[in-house]
Specification:
mainly alpha, about 0% strand
C-alpha cells in the first residue's frame, strides 16, 4: 500500500472537481446548457470515481482520517445533488472506520467542524446541503445500531453549527449592527 500515491490521487481528484472552471452553476444558462450537452458534468464523474476508490481502500481508510475530511467536505459542498448524494456517505464511513479503531470519532468530528467553518465562510454550503447531510448520515447510522446515537448527536451538532454559520454569512451584508452582533453571539 502506497499511502502517498493514494493521497496524491484523492487530492488531485478533489482539486479537479472543485476548480472554478467546472463550477457550472456560475455560468449563464446558455453556457451551462452548451457545456452540459457537450461534456456533461465532469464533477459528478470524478466524484463517483473518488467514492468508488475510497471504498476500495479497505482497512487503509484510517490512514486518511482526518487528512481527507477537508477535501471531501469541499467536494460535497459543490451544489450538484447527485454528487452530494454519492459522496456524503463517505463521511459516515470515515466515522465508522475511526469508531471501529478507537471507540469514538473525535478526530473526524473536530476536523469537519473546523473545515465546515472555513468552507461556509468562503461562501459554500446552503440549506439543501444541511438537509441532505442530515438525512444521509442519519439513514446510514440506522443500519449500525452500535454507533447510531453517537452519529445522531454529531449530526445534530453539525446541523446547529451550519444553521448558525449560514445565518452569520447572510447577515454580514446586513446594515443592522444588532443583527450581526446577535448572529455572532449565537455562533460563539
Amino acid at each position: 500500500f502506497n499511502l502517498q500515491l493514494w493521497n496524491n490521487y484523492f487530492h488531485l481528484a478533489v482539486a479537479f472537481t472543485t476548480q472554478d472552471s467546472l463550477q457550472l452553476e456560475n455560468f449563464s444558462h446558455a453556457k451551462y446548457n452548451k457545456i452540459q450537452n457537450k461534456y456533461g458534468d465532469m464533477r459528478r464523474l470524478i466524484g463517483f470515481a473518488i467514492r468508488d476508490m475510497w471504498y476500495k481502500l479497505g482497512q487503509n481508510k484510517i490512514c486518511f482520517i482526518p487528512g481527507m475530511v477537508g477535501p471531501i467536505l469541499e467536494m460535497t459542498l459543490i451544489p450538484e445533488v447527485e454528487l452530494r448524494k454519492a459522496t456524503i456517505p463517505i463521511f459516515f464511513d470515515m466515522m465508522l472506520c475511526e469508531y471501529q479503531r478507537t471507540g469514538e470519532f473525535k478526530k473526524f468530528e473536530n476536523e469537519i467542524i473546523l473545515k465546515l467553518d472555513h468552507e461556509v465562510e468562503g461562501g459554500r454550503g446552503d440549506e439543501h446541503y444541511m438537509q441532505l447531510f442530515e438525512s444521509i448520515l442519519t439513514e446510514c447510522a440506522r443500519q449500525h445500531p452500535g454507533i447510531c446515537s453517537l452519529v445522531e448527536s454529531f449530526v445534530s451538532l453539525v446541523r446547529g453549527l451550519l444553521e448558525r454559520l449560514l445565518d452569520y454569512r447572510a447577515v454580514m451584508s446586513d446594515e443592522s449592527k444588532d443583527n450581526r452582533m446577535s448572529c455572532t453571539v449565537n455562533l460563539l
